[in-house]
Amino acid sequence: MRKRNESVTVEHERAAAAAAVPGPLDKGCSLRRSLRLPASSAAEGMKRPLGRRYGLWFRLRKLILWLLGVYIAIPFLVKLCPAIQAKLVFLNFVRVPYFIDLKRPQDQGLNHTCNYYLQPEEDVTIGVWHTVPAALWKNARGKDQLWFEEALGSSHPVILYLHGNAGTRGGDHRVELYKVLSSLGYHVVTFDYRGWGDSIGSPSERGMTYDALHVFDWIKARSGDNPVYIWGHSLGTGVATNLVRRLCERETPPDALILESPFTNIREEARSHPFSVIYRYFPGFDWFFLDPITTSGIKFANDENVKYISCSLLILHAEDDPVVPFHLGKKLYNIAATSRSFRDYKVQFVPFHTDLGYRHKYIYRSPELPRILREFLGKSEHEHHH
């Protein structure tokens, strides 16, 4: 009986040992089982790239929604605060070039220029630069304000230059124009409107126009019978036509008006400005963006003003102007040319081809500019004396 139990035990142990040793087929299956990842590890490996992609999409979607919210909020913000739109029209807070001392025009290469300060109204002070003709350059060195004021009575015509928005009377392209005009024999008087540069006061269309009127009267009180021309650039064309309309109404017109890169009115200019591109087709664009400008008392209606102006008019405009589109300058010319107020005066439009690259503020580079001014203003002087 004992032997039988022992034999059964031995056979059982052998069977167990045989089962523990893998056969040819079982060996491969066992190897695959040992190499196979656990189910939980495989799932985690797949989740990692999916998680990264989902996180990136979530952040992108969040950014898009934020930008969309800002895009929609801005029109309402402008509508509720019209002062924002007024700031964007004037851009008087943008002072370029920076770190320039406006009391020292000689630092900008204007060695024959004097800095003045005039007071158009109480609590308003405006900074003025007076550049004498290049022919007086040597005589001007070291002279005081009184000498410069008396020089306005010399036999040289005077140009009152009204600059556009942003920057100051010391802007690079403006300084270069003063030099060109000075070399052609003109006195150049320019200034910063109240709220620009070192001028004191709050900007407004009415205030800018009054500042220009004050400087014009200041010039006329010192220039004797010398011709006085008014040159406006960009937003300054709006100030210029406001001023000249007022001068014509009081029967003291300038000898000629020059408009460089002009627009028809501020609403049409704002609609055409590059900044408005992303909102131009926004529902209610006029109500959101243009009406607040009017609400702020800003019109600069060149197209209306020219109907009441009685003096020679020259319009200069570059075809590649990205700020004030060329077609607005051409449209203004067409309005002026058919106006009864100009029937006894010359109205001329001079385009500058796109290939020249003069854009919005580089017409002063044109080698044709001296000839254009000489021919146009020469005829204006003839009209003035007859």
Automatic annotation (TrEMBL):
Domain AB hydrolase-1: 157-251
Organismal lineage: Eukaryota, Metazoa, Chordata, Craniata, Vertebrata
Membrane disposition: Single-pass membrane protein
PANTHER family per the UniProt record, alphabetical: ALPHA/BETA HYDROLASE DOMAIN-CONTAINING PROTEIN, LYSOPHOSPHATIDYLSERINE LIPASE ABHD12
Keyword Manganese (UniProt): no
Transmembrane segments: 56-78
EC number: 3.1.1.23
Principal cellular location given in the protein's record: endoplasmic reticulum
InterPro entries on file: AB_hydrolase_1 (IPR000073), AB_hydrolase_fold (IPR029058)
Membrane keyword on record: yes
Alphabetical list of Pfam families matching this protein: Abhydrolase_1 (PF00561)
Enzyme's top EC category: hydrolase
UniProt keyword terms in alphabetical order: Endoplasmic reticulum, Glycoprotein, Hydrolase, Lipid metabolism, Membrane, Transmembrane, Transmembrane helix
Function (record text): Lysophosphatidylserine (LPS) lipase that mediates the hydrolysis of lysophosphatidylserine, a class of signaling lipids that regulates immunological and neurological processes. Represents a major lysophosphatidylserine lipase in the brain, thereby playing a key role in the central nervous system. Also able to hydrolyze oxidized phosphatidylserine; oxidized phosphatidylserine is produced in response to severe inflammatory stress and constitutes a proapoptotic 'eat me' signal.
GO biological process: monoacylglycerol catabolic process; phosphatidylserine catabolic process
Protein name: Lysophosphatidylserine lipase ABHD12
Catalyzed reaction equations: Hydrolyzes glycerol monoesters of long-chain fatty acids
Protein family membership: Belongs to the serine esterase family.
Gene Ontology molecular function: any one: monoacylglycerol lipase activity
Organism name: Catharus ustulatus
Subcellular location: Endoplasmic reticulum membrane
Any one GO CC term of the record: endoplasmic reticulum membrane
